[in-house]
Amino acid sequence: DIFSYFCNNNYPFFQELVTQLCHAASNYHLETIKPYLEHIFYLCLMNDGLPHKRVQFAVQEVLKLSKTYNNFPNCCECFHFIEAICESHVGPIAQRFLELYLSEWVPTFLLYNMYDVVRQKAESLCDIVIFKKLDEVRDEQDMQEAEESVKKLYCLLLDMMESAEA
Fold it and tell me: Which domain of life is it from (predicted)?
């Protein structure tokens, strides 16, 4: 499609397009934001020299978009998008980004969201980002990295619970 053509090895155009798609999705009272997210998804899967920057930016923008919704269907659509990216061939990039920024999304969606379905989606995403590493351990280094990821998640959750009790 034409957007893919212009986004190929053109990161500024990709950024602007994703920003505009997320802006449109957040500003209109839509029953579903799925068509917007599908465009972003396919742009993330492009095979050029920019997958790291592109995937990180898209996941970051969709996380921001998900925080703008007080209704759970569209918030869950955002999580579905992120899960799909994590399960795709660019998944390791998205998983690493999400792991580095656990404090940006775990408290909001896993601990403080008022909808059970959103908390369940966040828990599923934690399973993909953190616990999937344990299933894919190939050597001692992988095991150490997986253990560190699990420790980081649990420390964050404990810190959040302690601050919520205070």
Answer: Eukaryota
